[in-house]
Every structure is written in C-alpha cells, then in structure tokens.
C-alpha cells in the first residue's frame, strides 16, 4: 500500500509509520514539527513539512499521489492544556482534521484511519472494562475535539464513501523493540517515561496523585498498551475498511496501578525511584481499562507486549541510549 501518515514525526505516528515500512508498504509522513521530531521520521519514509491548518497545502499534499490509506495522528493532545485553552484545542484539532478529511473526499481517498482517544469516555468512574458502545461524554475539550472528528468521519462516509476506522486508545507506552524509535515529548507528561527519568536521576522525584482510590493499592489503574502493538492494530484496521467503517476500543486489557508502574521501573532498571504522595488530581477516574474484544475478534489482533515489565523494558532501553531524546535540534 501507499500510505500518508499525518503526525508521523510524533510518538505513535512514527511507530505506525515504521511498522508500515517493516510490512513492505510505502510511507509518506506529513508533519508540521510543532511537537514532533524530524529525527523520528523513520528511515525509508518520505517527509512533507506541511501544517494541516493550511487548507491549500493540505489539499496539495493529498493530491500529490494516489493513497491507499491516510492515517491521521496529528493533533494537540494534552488533556490538561485543553482545559486551560479549550478553544485552541477545539479549533485546531477539528479544523485541521476537516481540512484533511475534505481533501481526502476531493481526491478519492477511500480508507482513513483516525487516532481517537479513550478521553471520549469522560472522567466519571464506570465499571471496567470500557466497551466500544460505552456512553460518550468527553471530560475535556481534547476529548470533545476527537469526538467532533469522529462525527465528521460519519458524514464523510455517508456522503462521499470515505471508509474510516476510529481507534479509541488508552495509554500508549514503550518504544520500538529494535531501538529505532522512542518517546520524546516536550514537556513529558506520561507516567512511564517520567518514572524512568526519575530512576535515572534526570528529573526530580516523582509525585503519585492520590492514594485513596478504590483499587488494589489505592492508586489509579490505567491500561498501558505497547506502541508497537498499537501500530499493529492500525495496520489491521485498514483491512477492515472494504465496504464499511469501524470503531474500536484499543487497549491491553490489563490494568496497572500507578504504584505498580513505579515498582516495575525499579525491577527492570535495578534502581530506586524517588517519589512521594500528592493529592488527587481533579477528574482522574479510579480505573480506565479497555475492552478490545471486538477488535480482537474482527482483526485477529492481540498484544504481544502485554506485561508491564515488557513495556517498561523497551522504554528504559531507549531512554538510556537516547539521554537527550531525539536531540536538541529535533524540531527542524
């Protein structure tokens, strides 16, 4: 296949681009490098420096070739930031996606894979695991922006026949097992790399938010899915788009507590993690775990890196071998 991957210089997008290349497909990465890294674009992929907010440039990029699939990862993605700047998130994520979707309908693209989010399901506690048909009630403008895009894709299917796969995933983690790619957010907000950096002495001690949740050790439970397993699911989803659109929840299916993440990093690294308790953060649900039954049944997908220590080990190896991430000149 010939695939256009937007946001392919970011964490998840770069790993999906790499997996597509590994499977023998042709890949073009489109990114504005506002948060992604030029060095994260996999070897073998072509690169287009385009801002999806520019409708004309977006249209020209989509028109530049005949795509078997477009995979859309480019977005502002920090939940907390979206609460501080709601209209920025709503406007930026929705308009950039609309520009891309409209260009796809104009230039006869037939398959579209969308990086959606578990943030659609809000901040209220609900019995785990969360099924595909669970009530949608976004707990943030970030989650709302993703839901708006999902609705736009519904109409793109009904009116233009653009088949889409919306993959609502939970906590992407880990790194390419071959060490080619890793996680380098600036600033970093994800628990596993933060915990690793604390163990390596690269940041101050960690704070664990909340110790009185109704979970096995009092800390929040989250569903961590290895980014390579995530990539595999995206590729399999493309194969489901002959004649229909699909929506899948995508997660490991196993929940791990915040405290278990700390313990895993200590086991795998052989180092103590400096940490302390902090108050709960508003809106943090006790448990978020995905029910990926439909994805597994319909695509044959199953996670290959299901245990927390496996996920942490790949992340640790990349952080150790890349102390400066992708380097100081990554956004260029």
From TrEMBL:
Family matches, as InterPro entries: Epimerase_deHydtase (IPR001509), NAD(P)-bd_dom_sf (IPR036291), UDP_G4E (IPR005886)
Any matching Pfam family: Epimerase
Annotated keywords: Carbohydrate metabolism, Isomerase, NAD
Swiss-Prot/TrEMBL GO biological process terms: galactose catabolic process via UDP-galactose, Leloir pathway
Key word Ubl conjugation present: no
Catalytic activity: UDP-alpha-D-glucose = UDP-alpha-D-galactose
Tagged with keyword Protein biosynthesis: no
Pathway: Carbohydrate metabolism; galactose metabolism
Cofactor(s) recorded in Swiss-Prot or TrEMBL: NAD(+)
E.C. code: 5.1.3.2
A GO MF term: UDP-glucose 4-epimerase activity
Subunit structure: Homodimer.
Name the UniProt record assigns to this protein: UDP-glucose 4-epimerase
Source species: Kozakia baliensis
